[in-house]
Design goal:
This protein is of the alpha/beta class. It folds into two domains: about 120 residues, no CATH class; about 240 residues, YjeF N-terminal domain (Rossmann fold, 3-Layer(aba) Sandwich), CATH 3.40.50. It contains 14 helices and 16 strands. The strands form four sheets. It has an eight-stranded mixed β-sheet with strand order 9-8-7-10-11-12-13-14, sandwiched between helices. It is globular and about 60 Å long. The chain starts with 7 loop residues before the first helix and ends in a 9-residue tail after the last helix. The structure holds ligand LZDS7PUF. Ligand LZDS7PUF binds next to helix 3, helix 4 and helix 5. It catalyses: (6R)-NADHX = (6S)-NADHX; (6R)-NADPHX = (6S)-NADPHX. This is NAD(P)H-hydrate epimerase. Keywords: Isomerase, Metal-binding, NAD, NADP, Nucleotide-binding, Potassium. One of its GO terms (molecular function) is metal ion binding.
């Protein structure tokens, strides 16, 4: 097994980065580090005194590097491992169908499987919505937000988001014509106690609020929308459809819209272009849905985030979700312009991660000290590590790198 010195780490990072390979699942202990690489193009690494050579090798499955904390310059392996994963994450997402999304929700909320309560997931989903708005349209430039709330769970996400957005410093207007159920009433109560403004629950209430808004959070319908829109939502959706927007633009430019999972009114799998409005930003909860493929990929993708940081690794593997790494403590990760990953590729990746996990150190001391670091905990170090790797790529990683 090769020995690794501190000088090798940036080179290894650069090699992974350059070859766009994926170090997905990392197992680290004070004395051992192992990670799997994306087997679409397996790599072997040869460590040299001052450089590292990477070359394709068919049979290689998991690379192991023996090291010690002393050898990595005092940095903890858990600190190093995530930066590798983040640097090398693949820039592709897998799209799931509406029925897969419902199945995943059911598994998350089954007491016998993952045990979540809907309210917990809604809270995290709503926080992700609020973070997406804040990241895309900060309140110093876009102080007034209209949150359009629908009758299902996505409407609940919207009410949670409205509360967070209030605390983030926005002036929040809520349009919510059909609030029902105990939990939804509690969320409404929380907002009313914060003096959040509720617009009249009809078309004119929506249009007045739209007139004042600098940005709109569209949480009317998610992946359970079916058939032609029914009142009281039909006219409001018309107002958001592009042609109606143009009329509106004669009075004032239409505010940008942030949609969740799928723009409201879009059929979740396919549908006519004329029935759609185009949001500026899309947040996919859990994983992108197949209905938004054309919106977020190709030559003119809208800004795209993934949120809903609550998927256990086992579930991610079961559905081959191939989720990207979330940076640090954030609830969203930006994936704008990422292309589609096929189901086959995603399954392959899931298989590799499971193998990497299975090949974790088995020695009892090591197991006790080891930490399984999912790629999702990785990217806190992303930007400065990426800069460092780019510089290294330009200079230190020389012609010895053959990939
Ligand atoms: N795991 C996660 O990522 C989570 C995501 N969440 C969010 O939940 C939605 C899906 O929630 P769901 O309640 O299943 O569905 P919707 O929010 O899309 O709305 C269903 C309601 O919409 C009504 N509906 C459906 N079609 C129409 C229509 N054509 N016209 C009018 N109204 C319509 C439907 O009414 P029915 O009478 O048909 O029952 C429902 O009332 C997901 O997208 C995420 O945003 C969860 O919050 C947490 C987990």
């Amino acid at each position: 097994m090769p020995r690794c010195s501190p000088a090798h780490w940036p080179l290894l990072q650069a090699a992974l980065h350059r070859s766009r390979q994926c170090a997905r699942q990392i197992v680290a202990s004070p004395s051992h580090l192992a990670f799997s690489v994306n087997l679409s193009k397996p790599l072997c690494f040869e460590l040299r005194r001052k450089s590292i050579r990477a070359y394709p090798q068919r049979s290689l499955r998991t690379m192991s590097i023996a090291t010690t904390s002393a050898q990595v310059g005092g940095a903890t392996p858990t600190g190093l491992a995530p930066s590798l994963a983040a640097l090398a994450a693949p820039r592709a997402v897998r799209f799931i169908s509406a029925s897969e999304a419902s199945e995943i929700d059911a598994a998350l909320m089954s007491p016998d499987q993952h045990g979540y309560a809907l309210e917990q997931l809604m809270e995290l989903a709503g926080l992700a919505c609020a973070q997406t708005v804040f990241r895309s349209y900060p309140p110093d430039t876009f102080p007034v937000i209209l949150v359009a709330v629908g009758p299902g769970n996505q409407g609940g996400d919207g009410l949670v988001a409205a509360r967070h957005l209030h605390h983030f410093g926005y002036n929040v207007l809520v349009w919510a014509p059909r609030l029902k159920g105990d939990h939804i009433s509690r969320l409404e109560r929380q907002l009313r106690n914060l003096d959040v403004f509720f617009a009249m629950a009809d078309d004119s209430g929506f249009e007045d609020a739209l007139d004042q808004a600098d940005v709109v959070l569209d949480t009317i319908f998610g992946f359970s929308f079916k058939g032609p829109p029914r009142e009281p939502f039909a006219n409001v959706l018309k107002a958001l459809i592009e042609e109606s927007r143009m009329e509106f633009q004669m009075r004032r430019p239409c505010p940008p819209v942030v949609s969740v999972d799928i723009p409201s009114g879009w059929p979740s799998e396919r549908g006519r272009q004329s029935e759609r409005f185009i949001p500026e930003v899309l947040l996919s909860l859990t994983a992108p849905k197949s209905g938004i493929r054309s919106l977020v990929t190709g030559s003119k993708p809208v800004r795209h985030f993934i949120g809903g940081r609550f998927i256990p690794k086992a579930l991610e593997h079961q559905y081959a979700l191939a989720l990207p790494a979330y940076p640090g403590d954030e609830q969203i990760v930006e994936v704008t312009g990422w292309e589609e990953m096929s189901l086959e590729q995603a399954r392959h990746l899931a298989q590799q991660e499971m193998e990497a996990l299975a090949s974790a150190p088995s020695n009892s001391d090591e197991v006790a000290a080891s930490t399984v670091v999912p790629a999702g905990t990785a990217a806190a170090h992303l930007s400065h590590q990426a800069d460092a790797a780019q510089k290294l790529e330009a200079g230190a990683v020389d012609d010895q790198q053959k990939v």
